[in-house]
Amino acid sequence: MAGADVQEIHCKTLLNKIDVPRFPFRWTMNPYRGCRHACTYCYARPTHEFWGMDSGRDFDTRVFAKVNAPEVLRKELKRPSWRREAIAIGTASDPYEPAEAEYEITRKLLHVLRDFQNPASITTKGVLVRRDVDILAELSQVADVHVNFSIGTINEKVWKMMEPGTPNPIARLETMQYLVENGISAGVMMAPLLPGITDDEANIQAVVEAAHEHDAQYLGANVLFLKPGSKEWFMPMLREAYPHLTPGYNRLYHNTYAPKEYTKSVMDTVDRVRRQWDLPDRARVQENMASKGQLQLAFAS
Q1: Between 169-181 and 201-213, two packed helices, what is the crossing angle to 10 degrees?
Q2: Residue 52's pLDDT band (boundaries 50, 70, 90)?
Q3: Yes or no: is domain 5-300 CATH 3.20.20.150?
Q4: Domain ranges across the chain
């Protein structure tokens, strides 16, 4: 977004261990803090509060670039205790947010992963990943790598309102197709699906059909969740744009996560539509990736 400030910082560590059973990965890394994609619902917004900033405008306009991240990652992957487990890139901010065009931190991290033959997954709403097709192809020759394009809708009105700093969803799909055509595993993560806005079958059908037409190799989905810090930023926007939905959201999001029955009904629709278009389930793809990693570890032991 215009007027954003990028501050260079040095990190002591880069890899973060995730001990949450429902997560498909155990390790994450994020080259940046903050994100100019400015998604209204972003669950990572509260991370700025740890630094004494707000989770709203500060998160959108004050980005921190971890300029020494590639050197730190190289040291961490050299450790005898490291077992070449898959690393998820872009769980707290987009690794291809606009600062990447200047700093190329994500690209340098991919070079390190290639050197260590370490599997990885990338989640992005960016199209700059097209630039890195060469190093992604090299990495995919020596380790599993998947690029997940986050696309919750292709409705232009909803996209512009909910994700004002992101590239057009169709441009993301075209970038995904370009990666696939160049031998890189890539697919769609339909996330988040927003109650009453993008969770209906018509929207799900439109996204899945577009994913199929652009050669997605798999598809997954998540329903919106609202953490403290994110909720305070999202709900005022909802009250202004969709006032009739506010009471329903207050009922659904009494806690961080929507009720299991609602979530299951939406995911059942996603699964049914996904099968109609013969697209593999993203969760199965990620599980296979993790299983392969465990087999490699067993043989290495």
Answers
A1: 40
A2: low
A3: no
A4: 5-300
Print the SS3 string covering 76-128.
Answer: HHHCCCCCCCCEEECCCCCCCCCCHHHHCHHHHHHHHHHHCCCCEEEEECCCH
**Residue 195: pLDDT over 80:** yes
Q: Is the pLDDT of residue 283 over 90?
A: no
- What is the distance between the terminal CA atoms of the chain, rounded to a whole angstrom? 48
**Dist. CA 262–CA 241, nearest whole Å:** 23
Residues 168, 211, 121, 163, CA torsion sign: positive
Whole-angstrom Cα distance, residue 60 to residue 64?
Answer: 11
| Predicted TM-score (pTM) above 0.85 | yes
In whole angstroms, give the CA distance from residue 179 to residue 134: 10
The mean pLDDT of 126-153, rounded to a whole number, is 98
Can you list the alpha helix ranges (DSSP code H) found in 116-168? 133-142, 156-162
Number of neighbouring beta carbons within 10 Å of residue 72: 19
Question: CA-to-CA distance for 30 and 100, rounded, in angstroms?
Answer: 12
